[in-house]
Amino acid sequence: MTTLPAILQEPIQALLDEGDKQFDKGRFDAALAKYEEARALLPSDLERWEASTWVLAAIGDACFLMGEHDRGQQALAQASECPEGSTNPFIQLRLGQCEFELGRLDQAVVALSLAYATGGEEVFEDEDAKYRACVHQR
């Protein structure tokens, strides 16, 4: 895992923090705009940087909550390729939820099962029961 130089890390973190403030107020579109600004600052070799994991996860989360499941799936799949993304229960949960909403049940089961394996029942605690059921039915 590689940390970005401070000259990039600091403005990216500031944008993430601004986005998170908007997100917490339910302003997902404003949050997404800040997260996208942060993504624009990342080096092109995204999968190398820890910051990429968090920026892409934030984009995916906002997209999921806005009902933009295809865009969310793309960001979260990319986040899965970044440091610790493939074993992060939240990233796998949101990826599985996007896949589920897109009707890709086989992919949904894989991601949701990984979320369950790494995060347990509590990762599904505040989520619609259909996602937990998807794991247990397969």
UniProtKB/TrEMBL annotation:
InterPro entries (UniProt xref): TPR-like_helical_dom_sf (IPR011990), TPR_rpt (IPR019734)
UniProt entry tagged with the keyword Transferase: no
Protein name: Tetratricopeptide repeat protein
Organism listed in the record: Chitinimonas prasina
Keyword terms, alphabetized: TPR repeat
TPR repeats: 12-45
Coiled-coil region(s): none
Keyword Nucleotide-binding in annotation: no
